[in-house]
Amino acid sequence: MAGSLLRRLLNRLDITNYRCYIPNLLGVEILIKITFGEFFKYFK
């Protein structure tokens, strides 16, 4: 389920924005880590 959701999200990415997207990967990764860090605090 998560795999298909991720695939659908990746399919929505515009290929023309590919070069603009790559430098933002690090920022996205940090944002995801912060978001999941906050998310998991509620389950501890």
TrEMBL record:
<protein>
    <submittedName>
        <fullName>Uncharacterized protein</fullName>
    </submittedName>
</protein>
